[in-house]
Automatic annotation (TrEMBL):
GO terms for cellular component: nucleus. The gene is LOC125548761. This is WRKY domain-containing protein. Residues 192-233, 258-289 are annotated as: Disordered. Keywords: DNA-binding, Nucleus, Transcription, Transcription regulation.
Length: 322
DNA sequence: CATATTTGACCACA
DNA sequence: TGTGGTCAAATATG
């Protein structure tokens, strides 16, 4: 936060005490480091997923955290004027997600022009850090599974135009193992991040959470996964241990079992609301942020990054969109 | 009871 | 005219 303020105060790179040329070099160096960090995070993410595959909650948690780190890098790169892979605050390709195309959705009907679209393939279409509300589902011709339509929870409250389409891929298209893959099309970009925190009135009136769910406020119709039969405290403690252990192991280049992994997280996969259909909307990201939100803030990593960048979305960090 | 999801109908576009 | 996208009433859930 403090660091961010300093950056904002010197938007042209003119750091006090440095002449412009040196400032430019510094600017470039910072961009280089940020980009490098972004790439390393992607590698770490891949390694973590490999190491934690099948570890349920730990896998989801690690994924969530690393996505947030990656997202933070993206935002910082954007702020510094670099070209980030994602213009949106979120780094859309979650875990092993791959950006398939940009600028047009799959299929022949590119609905409307001028609306930015980003198509990704991912195994966790809901862990992108945003809260989505499902508003429709439709069977699409020549597809095995229905397409689900989601829009940002702040669609009304903040007029956020972001929507996304989730299409489960048929088994034969699945890449590795048994993992179910989804084609996720992000349509339009989030504007909810550019705005001030929801006014108390709105926050009290509606249950819509903070974008990343760090407030740990319980959500209506919140999906439940893992932690069956455990009270909140025990579950949190187990997840905390799992998270610490998992990330430590990943960072060390190997993985070992962590205490309580069996008892606390029988199955970390997001529950499929309806077999064969699209999973329920406000799922993984929400739960991950909710269940481990305190843990994350305790670690101070994602939290710090989040608050460092979240206060400055938009131009100059002060560009509040009405 | 409030809110989210489901689902059929409607609308717009190619 | 067929298909994809959205709306809104009905339903489900906590």
């Amino acid at each position: 936060m403090q660091t961010q303020s300093r950056l904002i105060m010197n938007p042209n790179g003119g750091v006090a005490g440095y002449e412009p040329a040196a400032a430019d070099e510094q600017h470039e160096a910072v961009l280089r480091e940020l980009t490098h960090g972004h790439q390393l995070t992607a590698h770490l993410q891949a390694e973590a997923l490999r190491a934690l595959r099948g570890q349920g909650q730990a896998e989801a948690t690690a994924t969530f955290i690393l996505q947030e780190v990656s997202r933070a890098f993206s935002v910082c790169i954007n702020i510094m004027g670099g070209s980030s892979p994602a213009a949106t605050p979120t780094t859309p390709p979650p875990d092993a997600a791959a950006v398939v195309a940009s600028g047009a959705a799959s299929g022949r009907r590119a609905r409307d022009d001028g609306v930015p679209r980003k198509v990704t393939v991912t195994s966790s279409p809901y862990s992108d850090g945003y809260q989505w509300r499902k508003y429709g589902q439709k069977r699409i011709m020549r597809t095995s599974f229905p397409r689900c339509y989601y829009r940002c929870c702040y669609h009304r409250e903040r007029s956020c135009p972001a929507t996304k389409l989730v299409q489960q891929q048929p088994p034969q298209q699945r890449g590795d193992g048994e993992q179910t893959m989804y084609t996720v099309t992000y349509v339009d970009e989030h504007t909810c991040h550019n705005m001030a925190p929801p006014e108390p009135e709105a926050a009290a009136r509606s249950s819509t959470p903070d974008p990343l769910g760090f407030s740990s406020g319980l959500q209506p119709r919140q999906q439940q996964w893992g932690g069956a039969g455990l009270d909140r405290g025990s579950k949190d403690e187990l997840e905390r241990q799992a998270l610490v252990s998992s990330l430590a192991c990943v960072l060390q280049g190997h993985h070992q079992s962590y205490p309580g992994s069996g008892a606390g997280t029988p199955d970390g996969s997001p529950s499929q609301a309806r077999a064969g259909d699209c999973p329920s909307a406000s799922g993984l990201s929400l739960d991950a942020s909710d269940d481990v939100g305190l843990d994350v803030t305790d670690y101070g990593v994602t939290d710090a990054l989040y608050f460092a960048v979240s206060s400055s979305y938009g131009p100059g960090g002060d560009g509040m969109i009405p």
